[in-house]
Structure formats: C-alpha cells, structure tokens
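Good morning,

Attaching, inline, the backbone tokens for the sequence recovery test we're adding to the shared suite. The designed sequence is right after.
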C-alpha cells in the first residue's frame, strides 16, 4: 500500500470547508487539473458518483470517476478514484483550529502492484494533485494567504515546504 499525507490550516470555519469538500462538483475551483466535475449518480451522500474531466499533461487519463465512500458530517469524508489503477482513496479529516480556522488533514492511499505497471503512477499523480491543491482550497475559502502545506510520503509529517509523492 502506497500513501501520502498532508495537512493545512484554512482560515475559515469547519462547516464551510466541509461543504466545499463534500460536493465534488466544486473540485474545479481548487484543483488545477480538473476542468469539469459533474454528478453522475446519487447526490445525497455516501454513494454519490462524480465524473471528472481532466486537463494538462500530468494526468494522462482525461476522465476520472470519483465515488463518495465515507461521510461523517463536519468531521471527515473519503472519495475513491474508482477508475484509476490501485483505486486511490482520499481521506479528508477536519478539526476546529484556533480563531475559527479549520485544520485539514489529507491522506491518499492506493495499491501499488506490478500487475498495474506504469499505469499505477496515475494514482501517485492523482495523490500529488490533491496534496498540491490544498493551498488552492485555502485560497478559495479564505481571504488570507494560506500557511504552508505539511506533506510527506508514508503518512508522517515533514517540515513545511517539503512535498510527499508517495513513491
């Protein structure tokens, strides 16, 4: 199992961050490589499935399917990229921070196997896109510049400014 994690403080209430994250049609506002996201099936919580159209050279696949697999209102949610090899699972955890801010924790994990070969790198690229999108999420939700992202491979934490790739 491969994994990458990151955390970031966002200067807005937990409820606003949660609302932004649990509606995947809002992904294009904070993920640069997502040009479109639309609801494909069941929009009422767990089981909601979204079709994403991707752009740019970093993710070779032009379409991606996401499914909401866990939902704990105001605290946590998980999306599975069911159309990618290794079926990456992005788990977001939210907790109140100082002064009405929100601490966002993200862990992306996926199965890495020789059977998937080079295609499994798509999962790593998707994980990197989510981690690199956290500061953009903060900019969308907060009028103030975001603090640095803390990211590292293997689920630990690293000094601010370092990047985890999970590879």
């Amino acid at each position: 199992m491969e994994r990458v994690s990151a955390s970031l403080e966002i200067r807005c209430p937990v409820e606003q961050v949660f609302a932004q994250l649990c509606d995947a049609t809002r992904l294009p506002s904070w993920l640069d490589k997502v040009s479109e996201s639309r609801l494909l099936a069941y929009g009422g919580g767990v089981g909601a499935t979204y079709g994403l159209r991707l752009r740019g050279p970093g993710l070779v696949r032009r379409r991606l399917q996401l499914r909401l697999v866990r939902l704990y209102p105001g605290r946590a949610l998980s999306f599975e990229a069911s159309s990618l090899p290794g079926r990456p699972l992005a788990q977001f955890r939210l907790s109140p921070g100082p002064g009405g801010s929100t601490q966002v924790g993200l862990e992306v994990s996926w199965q890495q196997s020789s059977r998937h070969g080079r295609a499994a790198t798509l999962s790593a690229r998707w994980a990197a896109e989510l981690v690199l999108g956290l500061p953009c999420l903060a900019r969308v939700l907060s009028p103030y510049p975001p603090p640095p992202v803390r990211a590292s491979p293997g689920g630990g934490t690293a000094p601010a400014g370092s990047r985890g790739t999970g590879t």
